[in-house]
Amino acid sequence: MKFLVDFFPILLFFVAYKISGIYVATATAILASAVQVGWLRLKHRRIEKMQLVTLGLILVFGGLTILLKDRTFIMWKPSILDWLFAAAFLGSHFIGDRTLIERMMSHAIEVPTRIWHRLNLMWAAFFVFSGLANLYFANDFFTAEQALTNASGRDDVDLTSCVQAFSGNLLDLCMRAHEREETWVDFKLFGMMGLTIAFVIVQTFYLARYIRSSETRQEDH
Q1: CA-based end-to-end distance of the chain
Q2: What SS3 string covers 70-134?
Q3: d(Cα 86, Cα 154) in Å, to the nearest integer?
Q4: Which residue of 62, 115, 122, 197 has the fewest C-beta atoms within 10 A of its own C-beta?
Q5: Which residues of 130-169 are buried (b: 16+ CB within 10 A; e: fewer)?
Q6: pLDDT tens digits, 123-181
């Protein structure tokens, strides 16, 4: 359930993008994130630091995207958020008595400290990889957008109206930029969700070995 709640703003961003484009989608994501945090505050009487960080980033980067009409900010935001999470997991490896993953999961399962350390490093590595993957797809768009900007002499083009605005080579460049933007939006929802689900499944199988070993030792006693 929490997993679905976390992806709620991303899902609305995707839907709004398909209907009205990147800027409306960004405004929708900002509103959805604020509603999400408010709802969690009312339900649980507290808000996790990561949720506040996420809200802060979407407010800043989403706001700059809308204000400056520059997609760069909203496209960089997932990578920056992932790398902040990676830094938090990695930092907890050296600061404090317990790693971040142990603090989050120790109430549900019990495994040796060395396993918590491995899991913590795995999560840090996952967020680094996820951030790089997002930047890969975003950079594809940046390259296509720059080619369109250079050819057209226009800094901000409505990519949803390529056919009405251009013809010939400019139309091809505009369509290519629009396709790259759509690819990034698709990855933001399906790709990042798929990566997260796959990683959680791998983590579950990894933990299962140690959970079974722990239960076996308890039965022997």
Answers
A1: 36
A2: CHHHHHHHHHHHHHHHHHHHHHHCCCCCCCHHHHHHCCCCCCCHHHHHHHHHHHHHHHHHHHHHH
A3: 37
A4: 197
A5: bbebbbebbebbbebbeebeeeeeeeebebeebeeebeee
A6: 999 999 999 999 999 999 999 999 999 999 988 888 988 989 899 999 999 999 999 99
* Torsion angle of the four alpha carbons 20, 26, 31, 37, in this order, in degrees rounded to the nearest 10: 140
Domain ranges, ordered by start, for the chain: 1-69, 79-221
- Say if CB 141 and CB 75 are below 8 A apart: yes
User: CA–CA distance from 155 to each of 15, 48, 62, 82, 158 (Å)?
Assistant: 26, 39, 19, 29, 10
DSSP result, 133-175: HHHHHHHHHHHHHHHHHHHH--S---GGGHHHH--HHHHHHHH
How far apart CA 203 and CA 114 sit, in angstroms, is: 15
Q: What confidence tens digit (pLDDT) does each residue in 90-135 have?
A: 999 888 888 998 888 877 788 888 888 999 999 999 999 999 999 9
Written as six digits, the tokens of 91 are 């930092």
Cα–Cα distance between 133 and 187 in angstroms, integer? 9
AA identity, residue 183: T
The residue whose two tokens read 């990683």 is: 199
27-47 pLDDT per residue, tens: 999 999 999 888 888 877 777
Rounded distance between C-alpha atoms, residue 186 and residue 140, angstroms: 13
Work out the mean pLDDT of the chain and round it to a whole number. 88
